[in-house]
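hey can u check if this looks right to u? its 239 residues, i copy pasted from the old doc so theres a chance i mangled smth
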Amino acid sequence: MTTAQEERTAEDLKALAEQAGRDLEDASALEILQWAVQTFGKRFCVTSSMEDAVVAHLASRAMPGGTKVDVVFLDTGYHFPETIGTRDAVEAVMDVNVITLTPRQTVAEQDAEHGPKLHDRNPDLCCKMRKVEPLERGLKDYLAWATGLRRDESPTRAGTPVVGWDEKRQKVKISPIARWTQDDVDAYVAEHGVLTNPLLMDGYASIGCAPCTRRVLEGEDARAGRWAGRAKTECGLHG
């Protein structure tokens, strides 16, 4: 990345993001990530919940030869064993640099301060401490980050731009597969042999922390298994 790119102001980055969102709306996911890599270099990363490694795989293809993309993973302390196993497998077999972020407190330390099962009593606070705050620390040195958000996942994500502005973090936020459907994801996984979380074959459509995730029922959207029975639909990472 050039010095000029590093010195871009938040206003410059916001304008860049909004223009790219318009220009790249019809671009392929790989083309969107190639733009991100060319624009931000090592100050670009991919975040992954390890539901699957599709965006990480796409980003690895977009990187110049010999360069590994940073893949940021939040280890909340509450993940299913299968999710940690997927993270370990991605790190072992894919040409990426996995960076694991952890909260400031262990689960035991959080329980001692706030009482056990905070996720049941105040899920917003639990998510803030175990997801939002660690991610904000982890993204500090990046100018842009990529997510696996898709418009078809839920009504709250229907307006997701392929490139947008993360006002809260003052960073460019890239969702290269925003226009994809689940069929597109499945086709990419099959074509490229991409690693996926085994729980996806066991009735889970969106995988988060174990205490707050259940299998989805017939006809439910992919996010219905997250915080089921509550008004909560997002952990705070995406608004």
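The longest strand covers residues 69-74.
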